[in-house]
Write a structure and sequence with these properties.
The structure holds two protein chains of two kinds.
Chain A lengths: L7 E6 L8 H5 L1 H11 L3 E7 L3 H9 L4 E6 L8 H15 L3 E5 L2 H13 L4 E5 L1 E4 L6 E7 L4 E6 L6 E5 L15 E4 L11 E8 L13 E5 L9 H11 L2 E4 L1 H5 L20 E5 L5 H7 L4 E6 L6 H4 L2 E4 L2 H15 L2
Parallel strand pairs in A: 1-2, 1-4, 2-3, 3-10, 4-9, 5-9, 12-13, 12-14, 14-15, 15-16
Antiparallel strand pairs in A: 6-7, 7-8
Helix pairs in contact in A: 4-5, 6-10
Chain B lengths: L1 E6 L1 E3 L5 E3 L4 E3 L5 E3 L1 H16 L4 E7 L5 H10 L3 E5 L9 H19 L4 E5 L10 H9 L3 E11 L2 E8 L2 E8 L2 E5 L11 H9 L4 E2 L20 E6 L8 E3 L4 H14 L4
Parallel strand pairs in B: 1-6, 1-8, 6-7, 7-13, 8-12, 9-12
Antiparallel strand pairs in B: 2-5, 3-4, 9-10, 10-11
Classes of the chains: A alpha/beta, B alpha/beta.
Chain lengths: 334, 267
């Protein structure tokens, strides 16, 4: 399709309580820069149920306009309802570009929508810009397990769409909320939603493993030695209020559930602090965590590749290092 | 039950090294494997067949002629039949063009094998990591999709799929026909038996070439039919300037780390 405007859209995914997922708000930061270069407005698109908080957050973080679709059919994500709503909006307003957070749902929705609109999609971007020569969005993403970066253009199809990894961009400062709010009524009938959630089986212990939204992650790898070794990892995570991550080696060994896995075949994370314990740092793991603000590595092997990306590296035994850290933090917090 | 499993032959990315002088990928001598996520999709189909023995599993791949090896591997593990889509005009296709070609291939293979109840794909391929082709194929077919599947079970006219979500595992019900993409489950896929391996080696793999789809829109395939194109590729920069701590013992190192992190207001 042809673009009707020069506007750039950011799809703001919502949680079931109507708040915005972090990545949607994060994407308003590069979105502002890109919309400026494209000469269009920055538009946040909020789809959800009772999503006033998400609309407010988008408005406070730089959106010029917020288009909101609100209804009970959007409370729980479904490919069908969200694809219908988003495609209807794109066809009506005709943005030139659209950013979607690369969460599980974003990666489910992006290809469905881009295919229906017959346009290009670039997945899992880690850098965004406007190509000076052509004015197209320059989407940069890792491939081959993070060994290679590629910059992709979508020159002749609109909108240009990309999914962008959570944690790559930082939320902007809160400003006065003065975005124009546009409410759109799009109702999706029950029989148009062809999947149904029968049951939610919470993870053992009922914990929500939200690695993508975590500010601090303490991860364990092969060096943890066994499932009981993760008790030491959890002890540090507990005092830091951190989420527990793991390398593929630890997950494959059955020491911890796959939901904790960070890396190419697990989650891509971008916390403020990532503490890698007994993780050698295979390229597939680095691909999932090298965007963290600060990386601390603890490993016995002084030549482990994890030290190449670490801001602070300790060559030593994690079982002796972590308890000292735990004590120090406990004392500091009284 | 008639299940189609889509697989891709990929370089084993764990074996890829960087040429330190030219700063490019060294792909020579890197073994080709069946994309691991596609292996999980095949295993999910095989588990359905374990419980429903009249199930037929057909494998489809697109790639150069040597991708036949990937089909043979799938035949040795669990598949009953395999098709290769291979043609010059398909080369350079991005995910949208690829999914469109695969859509045409599904329609063609259904003429020969009967309609598929379900199409299984890996969540993503480990070379491109896009996770786009599965959902795009579902859209071309007009089928519902479930992504991040772990395993699936037939329940009457629907499939009950265990799907990995942030909070744990969701069980999703979806009616046939549908498309499911699979991520890594808690168990390992089965190995081929010697007998199946020998039979697979002898199997003829039908090839669907450039002329296999007379109705295909040639403006939507190959490099020219792809909405996206690669402007440049480069090897990511390594981070430098980290602090390495190796004091006389672990306790001293830990204390030093704590001091540094506190001083930098990180914790």
């Amino acid at each position: 399709m042809e673009a009707k405007t020069k506007d750039l859209w950011v799809f703001v995914e919502t949680n079931e309580d109507g708040t915005a997922k972090n990545v949607g708000i994060e994407l308003l930061t590069p979105g502002k820069m890109m919309a400026g270069k494209q000469g269009g407005a920055l538009v946040a698109v909020v789809i959800g149920c009772g999503a006033d908080e998400a609309v407010k957050a988008a408005s406070e973080h730089g959106a010029d306009k917020v288009i909101v679709v609100d209804g009970p059919e959007y409370k729980h994500y479904s490919t069908d309802a969200y694809a219908i709503a988003l495609c209807t909006l794109v066809e009506k307003y005709g943005p030139t570009s659209m950013l979607i957070g690369a969460t599980n749902n974003g990666r489910d929705l992006g290809p469905r929508v881009s295919c229906r609109l017959h346009t290009g999609l670039t997945a899992d971007c880690t850098a965004l810009d406007i190509d000076e020569e052509t004015g197209n969005v320059a989407w940069t993403r890792p491939a081959f397990g993070g060994n290679l970066m590629a910059t992709i253009l979508c020159p002749n199809h609109r909108p240009q769409i990309g999914t962008v990894r959570p944690g790559v961009f930082k939320k902007g400062d809160v400003t006065a909320a003065n975005a124009e709010i546009i409410k759109e009524d799009i109702h999706v009938a029950d029989d148009q939603i062809r999947t149904q959630v029968i049951e939610l089986i919470k993870e053992m212990g009922g914990e929500n493993v939200d690695l993508e939204g975590a500010e601090i992650i303490v991860s364990g790898g092969r060096g943890v030695g066994g499932p009981e070794g993760f008790d030491t990892i959890k002890a540090l995570a507990d005092v830091l209020g951190a989420t527990v991550g793991a390398s593929r080696a630890a997950v494959d060994a059955g020491w911890i559930a796959h939901a904790h896995q960070v890396g190419q075949t697990g989650k891509t994370v971008g916390p403020k602090l990532y503490i890698a314990c007994g993780i050698s740092g295979a390229i597939q793991h680095l691909a999932g965590m090298s965007g963290s603000d600060c990386i601390v590595a603890i490993n016995k092997d002084p030549d482990a590749p994890i030290f190449d990306v670490a801001d602070y590296g300790v060559v030593g035994n994690l079982f002796e290092v972590l308890p000292v850290l735990v004590d120090g933090i406990k004392k500091a917090h009284g | 039950m008639n299940i189609l499993v889509c697989v891709k032959q990929v370089p084993d990315t764990t074996e890829i090294k960087i040429d330190p002088v030219k700063n490019t990928l060294i792909r020579d001598g890197v073994p080709s494997i069946v994309n691991p996520f596609d292996g999980y999709a095949l295993e999910a189909a095989a588990r359905i067949k374990d419980k429903n023995p009249d199930t037929k599993i057909v494998v489809l791949t697109m790639g150069p002629p040597q991708a036949t090896a990937a089909i043979k591997e799938c035949l040795a593990i669990a598949a009953d039949k395999g098709y290769l889509v291979s043609g010059r005009t398909f080369g350079g296709s991005d995910t949208l063009a690829t999914s469109y070609i695969l859509y045409n291939a599904v329609k063609k293979i259904e003429e020969l094998e009967g309609k598929f109840d379900a199409i299984f794909c890996g969540k993503q391929a480990i070379d491109g990591d896009t996770a786009q082709v599965g959902p795009e194929l579902a859209e071309h077919l007009g089928y519902p999709q479930v992504t991040y599947g772990l395993e699936a079970e037939v329940d009457g006219d629907m499939l009950k799929v265990k799907k990995e979500v942030e909070e744990g595992v969701e069980v999703i019900g979806v009616k046939f026909p549908c498309l499911i993409t699979y991520t890594k489950p808690a168990w390992d896929p089965r190995y081929p038996t010697i007998k199946r391996k020998m039979a697979a080696n002898k199997a003829e793999i039908p090839v669907l070439g450039d002329d296999a789809f007379p109705d295909i829109d040639t403006t939507r395939i190959g490099l020219k039919g792809s909405p996206t194109n690669v402007k440049k590729t480069f090897v990511p920069q390594k981070k430098t300037g980290g602090v390495k701590i190796a004091e006389e013992d672990n306790t001293a190192s830990a204390k030093k780390l704590f001091e540094l992190l506190t001083a930098a207001s990180i914790i």
